[in-house]
Amino acid sequence: MSSISQLATRNSQLLAWHGWNLAVPDTWNPVKVDGTWDQGLMLLADMHQAKLGLRWRRAKRGDPEKWADRALKDEVGNLAAKQAAGFAMPESTDWKVSKLYADTDPPGRDVWVGWSNQSSRVLEIVHHVKTRDTFFEQQVLPTVSDTPESGEQAWSIFDLSCKTPSGWKMQWFRLNAGDLTLSFKSKKKSANVRQIGPATLALTRLKLDDWIGQIDKSLRKIYREIDDLSDTTLDLPNRTLTGRRGVLYRKRRLFWAVMFTKKLDVIGVHDEVRNRLFIAQGDDEPAMREMLKSMGWAKKA
Amino acid sequence: MLFRKKKPHMSAEQALEAKPVRLVEAEMQPLPDGGGMLKVSLKQPKWGQRLFRLPESSTKSFEFDAIGVFVWDNIDGKTNVQQIIKRLAKRYDLNLREAQVPTVKFLEMLIKKGLVGVPMEKK
């Protein structure tokens, strides 16, 4: 993770999703995101065209070399796949196989395929190229890395970045302009982290207490509105954020619905430095606080 | 259907390069929350002149939030949509995609309301 942070330059952004980490230009943004840890895809585009496509899936068995050849054939055809060559990744021990096909006659597609040792998953990256350049193989590919499924996970998409403790998996996400939410689950516990920005505009519409009191549609039938809020603080490494804390209680008539936890804690803080509101909701307050403290880890200083 | 004018089609590239212009002459009145109020005088509809006459001083008000005011201020006929998006992203420290989506939607709404127009080059 630290090597990625060092590689991130002024004009790049760190993307961390389901264990995959890479640095891409800050003009490339996800336009399509789908899938889970085991299988998924992501399409990155700038304002004009698609730039990068990522596709991954679980692959525990099989011959990595044969898989790579097959994947390249499926993507670029037989003749082009024969031109692909091994690509040396910075952490070569992390990859069972790493092959790159660079289109010799652009516009076209450069394709990289890799089999990760870290999580036993395969990753295909397609770079849409208009003119021949080495940006993809020199700037983007060396930053690609994987993290094991067990252990702390880093997440970074658009402006939202956070870290989840070991054992927490993503349940769902909602990526609206200015309002980003990631939901995680660990065994029987769950936690959502939500980032709203710019905070100055958000607070002209609703006060922080009202933002915290907003209940997700799916939970309105199950939980009562927050009765009262109390002050709380969040200690960051170099400063302390003040915020508000409340509790959502399960409706009394749903006493029998044991599948829904009795109460959900909600914590909301206003980070004036980053001009963002951070709201966490869930039934594991220590984990929520850890996630809130890690918010913005990918942001350049 | 046969005599309807075909709506001009604009590609994504053209849409980003387009330079929107204001179609109404009105001053934006600032509001305390950082937004603004735009009062546009209503034009007499041709078909209703005899049947339904509007008072001469009738106006329609449009309320903008701070981001809407920022976008409106940048609509000057010289700044293209891409530049407006970049300026908005820089002003509010937003991701480009986060700035692009609301800006494009907002401009579409302004065009629909008749406040803004986008000149197209004839082929």
What strand line-up does the widest sheet of chain A have? Answer: 3-4-5-9-8-7-6
| CATH fold-type name of chain B | Arc Repressor Mutant, subunit A
Task: Give the terminus-to-terminus CA distance of chain A.
Answer: 16 Å
Radius of gyration of chain B: 17 Å
Strand content of chain A: 35-45%
- Helical/strand content category of chain B: alpha+beta
- How many domains of chain A? The number is 2
CATH topology heading of the largest domain in chain A:
Protein Transport Mog1p, Chain A
Order of helices and strands of chain A: HEEEEEHHEEEEHEEEEEEHHHEEEEH
Report low-confidence residues of chain A grouped into runs of 5 or more: 1-8
CATH class division of the largest domain in chain A: Alpha Beta
Q: Can you tell me the CATH class of chain B?
A: Mainly Alpha
Task: Please indicate the percent range of residues of chain B in DSSP E strands (runs of 2 or more).
Answer: 15-25%
Low-pLDDT runs of chain B: none
Number of strands of chain B: 5
Architecture of chain B, CATH level 2?
Orthogonal Bundle
Query: What structural class should be given to the helix and strand makeup of chain A?
Result: alpha+beta
Q: What does the largest sheet of chain A look like?
A: 7 strands, antiparallel
